[in-house]
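Fold this sequence, please.
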Amino acid sequence: MSSLQPIPKRVAGPQDAARLSHSTKVQACHLQRSAIVYIRQSTPHQVIDNRESTDRQYSLVHRAVDLGWAAPQIEVIDEDQGKSGSTAEGRLGFQKLLAEVGLDHVGIILGLEMSRLARSCKDWHQLLELCAIFRTLLADQDGLYDPTDYNDRLLLGLKSSFT
């Protein structure tokens, strides 16, 4: 005679795996530093005509709160609106972002897509290296990434090559 096990009311799904992954990536050392939401669209025309994208980018502040950052710790960098990501030249917001990471002030950078941070491989890899050195997490609409983790770094590298 076989013994039947009760069927669980809910089966763990991909959201549970993502939630567990997020909880293990965000550490106290990250939460002690600020969260930066980086907002950018490539052209002034996009900024004016594509408000939905801008609104979605600003809503990443809520994601930072959900991940454990207090509202006063969250900074929005949006001075690069209407500027191409093809180079860091002339993008004071991106330059500020690099400086803040290099000063070990940033626990996480959030963007709608990682490709919005930098379209230049040189600029992207400079940011990625700094994030790895100073243990700064990256998050976009698809996930939460730790650039010190081999698999996350590989995925971030792939994302940058498709921009």
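The chain is about 45% helix and 15% strand. The beta strands are 34-38, 74-77, 106-110, 137-140, 143-145.
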